[in-house]
Amino acid sequence: MICYRTTFNKVLFTLLLVLSFAPNNNVFAADGEALFKANCANCHKPDADYTGPALKGWSKRIPSPDWIYKWVANPAQMIASDAYAKALFEKWKPTVMTSFSSLKKDEVDAILKYVDDYTPPAAAQTATTGGEGGETDNSMIFGILTLVLALVAFILLQVNSNLRKLSDDKVGIHRGEPVPFYRNKAYLMAGILLLFAVGGYYVISAAIGLGRMKNYQPVQPIYYSHKVHAGTNQISCLYCHGSAQDSKHAGIPSVNVCMNCHKAIKEYKGDPIVREDGSAVNGTEEIQKLYAYAGWNADKKEYNPDNNNDGTPDGARPISWVKIHNLPDHVYFNHSQHIKVGQQQCQTCHGNIQEMPEVYQFAELSMGWCVNCHRESKVNFYDKKTGEGNKFYSIYEKFHNDIKNHKMDSVTVENIGGTECQKCHY
Ligand code: HEC
Ligand code: HEC
Ligand code: HEC
Ligand code: HEC
Ligand code: HEC
Ligand code: HEC
Prior knowledge:
Layout: H1 2-20, H2 32-40, H3 58-61, H4 67-73, H5 75-81, H6 83-92, H7 105-117, H8 121-127, H9 134-171, H10 185-209, H11 226-232, H12 237-241, H13 255-262, E1 273-274, E2 280-281, H14 283-294, E3 296-297, E4 302-303, H15 335-341, H16 346-350, H17 367-376, H18 397-404, H19 421-424
Antiparallel strand pairs: 1-2, 3-4
This protein binds heme C (6 copies).
One heme C binds at residues 222-225, 228-229, 233, 235, 253, 257-258, 260-262, 265, 268-270, 273, 281, 283, 286-287, 290.
C-alpha cells in the first residue's frame, strides 16, 4: 500500500514540476503583439503606411493623451467631432477605421506599446540569432528550464531513494536492490503521460491547421495583375466581381468581360512588371494569351469564325484560373451578407488586392478569424428615433430597449447570433 502511495506521489510530483514549466505563451494578460495582429494588422503596420497610417510615433502626433482611447473606441464619431481626426480622415478616406469599443484601456496601451517597441523582423533576427521574435525566445527558455528542472527532479528522486535505502539498511529493514530508473514504473508512467500530452498537442494543432492555406499563391494561366488593373488603372473590384454584392460568390469574370477592354488594349505599355523571383513579365505577350483563350484575331480585329458550330469562336475556351480561397464544404459563407448588408471592405478580408501583382490568400480563413470579427463588428442597427439603419433589425425589441436604457450602445454581429454554430455550419 505504502509502496503504491510513494509511487503515485513521485509521478504526481514530477508531472506537476514539468507541467508548471511547460511552454505556455498565453499566460500574459494583455499581449500587445497578439492583440495588434488580431485587430489592427489588417490595416496598420507599425513602421509603414498601409490601409491606415504607420502607427509608430503615434503618441507624438495625437492632440491629447486621452484622445487615443476615444479614437479607438469610436473613430466615426471622432471624425465628426474632432479636428485632428477629421484631418486624418481627409488624408485616408474613404476608409474609416473600424471601431473597437470592446478593447479595454490596458489592451490599447499594450497594443501601442508593442507598436512603439517594434523592430523589423530582419533586424530582430540578427540580434537574437535565428529566433522568430520574442515569443519563440520565451518558449526556448521555458523549454530549457523545463528540461533542467526535470533533470534536477529526477536526480533528487534518485538520491532520495538511495538515502532511504541506506537508512533502512542501518535500522536493519532489508529492502531489495532499488529498481534501475529505466525499469521504474513511476518514471515509465510519467514518460508515457508526457509523450501523450505533448504528442496529442502537436497532432491536434496539425490536424486543425490541415487545409489552411494562408499566403497560398498559385501560378495562374495568364499573368493577370490586380495591381495594374485595380491599382494603377483604378478599375472597380465590382466591375469584375460584381456578384459579390448580391450573391454568395464574388465570382471570377468571364473572358468576355476582359475583352470589353482588350479588344482595344493590345499592348502593355505601363510600368515594368517583375515576378517575385525577379524575372520580367511581358504584359503584351500575356494579352496575346488572353486573345488565344477568347478566339480573337487581333490583326483582323474580329473573333475567329465558328466553323465547328459550337456557338463560340474556333479555338476559344475558358481560362482555367486556379482558385485561391477555398473554405471547407461544411462552412457557409456569403459575400452579399458581408458586402451589402455588413458593409465590409474587400480589403479587410482579402488584403490590399489593388497592390498585389499576383493574388495570394491574405487571411487565415480559420474559424477563429470569422468569429473574432463577428465579436467586434457592429451591425448597422436600426435606430428607432431617426429611422436610420437596417430595417431588418427593427424587430430586436430587447436591444432597442437596452439601447434606450443605456445598457448597451451598439449591437455586434455576435449579439444577433453571428457566433451560433448553425449560422456558419450546416
Ligand atoms: C479597417 C482598417 C483599420 C483597422 C482594422 C484599424 N485601423 Fe487604425 N486607422 C485606419 C485608418 C484608415 C486611419 C486613418 C483615419 C481614417 O481614415 O479613419 C487610422 C488611424 C489610426 C490612428 C491615428 C494615427 C495617427 O497618425 O494619428 C491610430 C492611433 C490607430 N488608427 C490605431 C489603431 C488600432 C490600435 C487598431 C487596432 C485596435 C486599429 N487602428 C485598427 C484604419 C484601420
Ligand atoms: C479586370 C477584372 C478584375 C478586377 C477589376 C478585379 N479583379 Fe479580382 N480577379 C480577377 C481575375 C481574372 C481573378 C482570377 C485570377 C487571379 O486569381 O489572379 C481574380 C481573382 C481575385 C481573387 C482571388 C479569387 C480566388 O481564386 O480565391 C480575389 C480575392 C480578388 N480577385 C479580389 C479583387 C478585389 C478586392 C478587387 C478590387 C480591389 C479586384 N479583385 C479587382 C479579375 C479582376
Ligand atoms: C476596364 C478595362 C479592362 C478590363 C475589363 C480588363 N483589362 Fe487588362 N488591362 C487594362 C489596362 C488599362 C491595362 C494596362 C495597359 C497599359 O498600361 O498599357 C491592362 C493590362 C493587361 C495585361 C498586361 C499587364 C498584366 O497584368 O500582366 C494583361 C495580361 C491583361 N490586362 C489581362 C486581362 C484579363 C485576363 C482580363 C479579364 C479578367 C482583363 N485584362 C480585363 C484594362 C482592362
Ligand atoms: C468578410 C470577409 C470577406 C469580404 C469582406 C470579402 N470577401 Fe471575398 N472571400 C471571402 C471568403 C471567406 C472567400 C472564400 C469563399 C469560399 O471558399 O466559399 C472569398 C472568396 C472570394 C473570391 C473567390 C471566388 C468566390 O466567390 O469564392 C473572390 C473573387 C472574392 N472573394 C472577391 C471579393 C471582393 C471583390 C470583395 C469586395 C467586394 C470581397 N471578396 C469581400 C471573404 C470575404
Ligand atoms: C471583417 C469582419 C468579418 C469577417 C472576417 C467575417 N464576417 Fe461574417 N459578418 C460580418 C458582419 C459585419 C456581419 C453582419 C451583417 C449584418 O449586418 O447582418 C456578418 C454576418 C455573417 C453571417 C450572418 C449572421 C446572422 O446572424 O445573420 C454569417 C453566416 C457569417 N457572417 C459568416 C461568416 C464566415 C463563415 C466567416 C469566415 C469565413 C465570416 N463571416 C467572416 C463581418 C465579418
Ligand atoms: C462565423 C462562422 C462560424 C461559426 C459561428 C462557427 N464556425 Fe466552426 N468553422 C468555421 C470555419 C470558417 C471553419 C473552417 C476552419 C478551417 O478550415 O480551418 C470551421 C471549422 C469548424 C470545425 C472543424 C475543425 C476546424 O477547426 O477546422 C468544427 C468542429 C467546428 N467548426 C465547430 C463549430 C462549433 C461547435 C461552433 C459553435 C460553437 C462553430 N463551429 C461556430 C466558421 C464558424
